Amino acid sequence: MLKRNVAALLISAAIPIAGYSGQQDPLESPLWDHMRAKFIGDQEYVFDSNVKVTVPEFAEDPTQVPITVNAEALAGKIDKIIVFADLNPIQHIFTYYPHKEIVPRLSMRIKVQQATAIRAAVLSKSGVWHVGGGYLDAAGGGCTTPSAAAANNYWQDHLGEMKSKFFPREKGGRYKLKVVHPMDTGLVSSIPEFYIENVEVRNSEGLPLAKLELSQPVSENPVLTFDVRDGSQGHRIWMRDNGGNEFENAL
To answer: What's the predicted TM-score (pTM) here?
Structure first.
């Protein structure tokens, strides 16, 4: 059975593991070995409590589950972050490539099909994966529930519309962004997959500061929250979905 009290299981120091060692998964997921092979391969990895994944104790709505991935302790040493749900029919949730001007902390809402471990695997510039996670209890069905857009034509006229807000912080600031998009998984009969695949945070000159590769389990009308070290604002957001539609807006 998956462990629920992650804090009690992830020790304060990282547990070094070279390749596939058979080391017990702190979350005791039946699919950990498969997930490791799929997303990490035979590269060296550690279970590291410095990689924090925050999830609710129970997913009241399995189509809109808030999660936060925080790898601030490894800031400046990160190549990419891969987030996945062990027991989802589509495990990959997103891959994040944060720039040094972007704090490696990201919040969003996702869909889950059942109770599952939610993990973040952080690849350091030294080539070692740092793995953290949390256990999410859920009634399930989130990935096979039709989006609200399926019964409402509102999204067709408002596809890609964005709303954002900036919250100044002691150092830098925080953006919260919402975009209109059905994010269909393709797992509902007669509704093909239709979701945002790529996101870029750009500076005022149009240069990318962070990149996101999203998958179908991201919730309908995605809400993204991320932190920047530069509090002057002037950032822009660009998105493209799997239908080739592109959206861009000032934040």
So the answer is: 0.90
- Going by C-alpha positions, the residue among 89, 85, 90, 88 that lies closest to residue 120 is 85
What are residue 82's DSSP bridge partners?
95, 121
The total number of residues written for the chain in this structure: 251
> Hey, which residues does 80 pair with through a beta bridge?
123
CA distance 177 to 185: 21
For 179-211, write each residue's pLDDT tens digit.
Answer: 999 999 999 999 999 999 999 999 888 889 899
Query: Nearest CA to 244 among 186, 192, 196, 177?
Result: 196
Q: Would you state the structure tokens that stand for residue 94, as one six-digit string?
A: 């997103």
H or E element at residue 63: none
- Lay out the sheet containing 223-228: strands in order across: 52-54, 65-70, 102-110, 223-228, 173-179, 162-168
Tokens 């060296």 sit on residue: 44
Residue 233 token pair: 């604002």
Greatest distance between any 2 Cα atoms in the chain: 52
Q: Which residues pair with 212 in a beta bridge?
A: 96, 199
Cα(57)–Cα(61) distance, integer angstroms: 12
Quick: pLDDT tens for 42-84.
999 999 999 999 999 999 999 999 999 999 999 999 999 999 9
106 membership: H or E segment, kind and range:
strand 102-110
Nearest to 104 by CA among 91, 92, 95: 95
